[in-house]
Specification:
2 helices; single chain; mainly alpha
């Protein structure tokens, strides 16, 4: 089925608008500094290491209590 000229023009306009939105989005992303996520990544890594260390310490503290309870 071949769309009439009105439908074809409308589809072409919608497609052009979508391409313009994508181009604007790409321009906005290009303006962001490349290292913007580095501080957050660093903080997240430190927090993760802290939580792992805390979990390990809590497991060590819990083990003697379990052994005493089973004796």
């Amino acid at each position: 089925m071949v769309p009439d000229i009105y439908s074809r023009d409308k589809l072409a306009l919608e497609h052009r608008q979508q391409l313009q939105r994508e181009a604007e989005h790409e321009r906005m992303l290009a303006d962001l500094p490349e290292h913007s996520s580095h501080p957050m990544r660093h903080i997240a890594g430190k927090l993760g290491m802290f939580l792992i260390a805390l979990g390990s310490r809590l497991k060590q503290l819990e083990q003697p209590r379990k052994q005493i309870a089973y004796d």
